[in-house]
Each structure stands twice: as C-alpha cells, then as structure tokens.
Amino acid sequence: MGINALDALTIANVAIGLLRQQLPPGDLVHGITLEGGSAANIIPARAVGRYMARSETSERLQRSSSARQRLLRGRRPRNRRVTAHRRDGSAFSQMEADHEILAHYRRAAEGLGRTFELDDEGVDRPMISTDMANVSLVVPSIHPMIAIPPTAP
Question: DSSP for 133-153?
Fold first, then answer.
C-alpha cells in the first residue's frame, strides 16, 4: 500500500513530454531519471529526475519554466506527489553577438579559408548553453564556433 515515487516521476515525464508539444520552436526540455528505486519487487519511496530547459530568450525560458512548475504542482493523481523541486545551477541568457566584432572575425577567418554556412540566412542555429551568453549582455562579445573537418584521405 506504499506510495510509488517512480509512478509520480513517470507521470511527470509524460506530462513534460506532452507540454513539449505545446512549446514554441526553439524551446526545448530534456529530462532523465537519476533514481527510481533499488529493486524491481520493492515499491520505491524515492525517485529523482533531472530536467534541463532551453529557450531562445530569457523571457521565453521564464514563461516555459512557469508552465513546467504549474504542471508539476497541479497535475498529479492522489497519493502521487512531487515533494521537492529545486533549481540546480544558474540560468544562461540568450547570446547577443556584437555584429561589428563578428564581421571583423568573419573577414579574418574567411581570409584564412574558413567558410560560414551555418551563419547564412535560413539555416537553423544549433541550440547551445553557455555562460558566455550572460557576459554578452554586458560586454560586446562574440562566441564563434568553427568546424574541424576530417582531413582528406
């Protein structure tokens, strides 16, 4: 007759998966189960999951965070409860590249034979998280990424 903590975490995983469908493009939520019991024949009293969320802007991240918190607090069946929810680490803001510095960097790199297909219009940007983004809101910054292609045979 014990309360199955893993059931509550499973419900949270499904609910977050369903919420993911409603998020705007560029908003992402990832999750894993870290702990779900110690034996198959023992009802787990504790289950632990870790989630990571990303968004294109800090404001959108905050809105989706509020939706996730409401979901975890309010959408659980009787006797299935999330007893702890905490933020682990700091949020990273969106990267704001300084276009003048970036133009200088691109010209210099192209002079060395580099190409920048990922920077051209219409190409999806990779979703990355970095504390450099927080710095970019205070100090003119760029965070270039370059490919290191394999050598020709």
Answer: HHHHTTS---------PPPP-
Pairing status of strand 28-35 against strand 48-54: antiparallel
* Tens-digit pLDDT profile for residues 59-101: 888 777 777 776 666 544 555 555 556 666 677 777 888 989 9
Assign 59 to helix, strand or coil: helix
Q: Could you give phi then psi for residue 54, rounded to 5 degrees?
A: -135, 150
Alpha helices in 2-123 (DSSP H): 5-20, 58-74, 99-111
- Determine the Cα angle at 149 with ends 146 and 151, to 5°: 145
pLDDT at 10 over 70: yes
Average pLDDT, the chain: 79
Using CA atoms, how far residue 59 sits from 8, 56, 88, 101, in Å, is: 29, 9, 19, 26
pLDDT at 153 over 60: no
pLDDT (0 to 100) of residue 84: 58
What is the identity of the amino acid at 101?
A: I
Which run of H or E residues covers position 50? strand 48-54
* Helices and strands counted in the chain (H then E): 4, 2
